[in-house]
Design a protein that fits this description.
- The chain has 369 residues and is mostly beta strands.
- The chain contains no helices and 30 strands.
- It has strands at residues 23-24, 46-47, 55-58, 65-68, 73-76, 86-93, 96-103, 114-118, 126-130, 133-136, 142-148, 154-160, 165-172, 176-182, 185-190, 200-204, 210-216, 220-224, 227-230, 238-242, 248-251, 260-266, 272-282, 285-294, 299-302, 317-320, 326-332, 336-342, 350-353, 366-368.
- The two termini are 26 Å apart.
């Protein structure tokens, strides 16, 4: 199974007629700050109005689709395999993306899932190769691919989104997990346990020197510049660490939800990180919360209208636009498929209901187009 950050799972069996309708959710009052402030409520916000200039690339099995919220249109991505049952993921690469198509097959052997590049504003994918692991390069125009040469030998190579090799392949252990690329080098994990998320993380610089980071792959939430954000057990302090100075800061748990951290997305300014938290909002019902961390001041900002009692983490993904808006795509119990848009400083979320072909469940399902 290919790894991006966390692989989306599930399969798409029945396609709906490709269409999208952006409908405003009914206006809801702002959450009270008095007696009922401890009460969890369904997702609330103001209706989306006017032109959004938002186009979303959304993962679906067996192929993703491009949604234009202003044109009420859906276009499937072409150039992808559609044979058999497949699990499809989308990984942003700068302003572009890669698509990973993994056939569900108990008898399948390496080389593994197939990786495709797709340029911004395009709906045609270009095959980059097969890989067990893929992460974006810092320049946003290529990816690192770790794949099998044989059943026991693997290589690491860099391939542009146009399919052209940018770095020659070099041997690497097949028990290596790619986590991301920073100015100082590649974040990786390696180990021998059955669960690769338990493997200890390290930084490999351009000379091949490896520095252990002191946390397992599962604890990594986000990385930006020289900083990494990690989280361990629910309610335990998060840690923001500078890899160059080796200084680490403990950050208090900001959310009332106690299930754990979910996913994180780095703002285009490289400083702010949006972080999702999940847990039981009421008995038997999952809830979701979002906070913004300023890594310069190490202060938290709570997103308005949250936490919400009817959002499941497994159906939620988020990404930043180039102009600094956070876009959250989710499935709610009360409003169905919903897109939420927020710019830091705004007092309310802007919400709209969507009617879309079935997205892949899980994270790694969304890129801004």
């Amino acid at each position: 199974m290919v790894a991006l950050a966390a692989l989306a799972a599930g399969s798409f069996q029945h396609h709906e007629e490709p269409s999208t309708q952006l409908r405003a959710l009914s206006r809801t009052p702002a959450p009270s700050t008095t007696a009922d402030r401890r009460e969890f409520r369904p997702l609330a916000g103001l209706p989306i109005t006017g032109r959004t200039r938002l186009r979303l690339l959304v993962a679906s099995d067996p192929r993703p689709f491009l949604v234009d919220l202003d044109q009420d249109s859906v276009q499937p991505v072409t150039g992808l395999p559609t044979d058999g049952e497949r699990v499809v993921s989308v990984l942003p690469v700068g302003e572009h993306a890669v698509i990973v198509s993994d056939r569900v097959c108990t008898s399948c052997r390496p080389p593994g899932p197939e990786v495709y590049g797709i340029w911004r504003d395009s709906t045609s994918a270009v095959r980059l190769g097969s890989a067990q692991e893929v992460v974006a390069t810092r320049d946003g125009r290529a990816v690192w691919l770790l794949g099998h040469q044989t059943t026991t030998a693997c290589t690491l190579r860099q391939v542009g989104l146009d399919g052209r090799p940018r770095r020659p392949a070099r041997p690497v252990s097949c028990t290596t997990k790619l986590l991301g690329e920073l100015p100082a080098g590649l974040l990786v994990a390696s180990g021998t346990s059955e669960d690769p998320w338990e493997w200890p993380a390290s930084l490999v610089d351009r000379r091949g020197h490896r520095t252990g980071l002191g946390f397992p792959a599962a604890d990594l939430l986000a990385a930006t510049g020289e900083l990494v954000l990690t989280s361990a057990e629910p309610l335990a302090p998060l840690a923001l660490s500078n890899l160059r100075s080796r200084v680490s800061w403990r950050l208090g748990w900001p959310s009332r939800l106690r299930g754990g951290t979910h996913i994180a997305a780095v703002h285009p300014n490289g400083r702010d990180i949006a972080i999702g938290f999940h847990g039981l909002a009421v008995p038997g019902e999952e809830g979701y919360d979002l906070w913004l961390l300023n890594t310069a001041t190490r202060r938290w900002q709570h997103l308005p209208d949250l936490p919400a009692a009817d959002i499941a983490a497994k159906a939620t993904d988020m990404a930043w636009t180039g102009d600094g808006r956070l876009v959250v795509l989710t499935q709610t119990a009360t409003g169905g498929q919903v897109v939420a848009v927020w710019r830091p400083g705004q007092p309310r979320l802007a919400l709209g209901q969507l009617t879309l072909p079935t997205p892949s469940p899980g994270t790694d399902t969304l890129a801004i187009w």
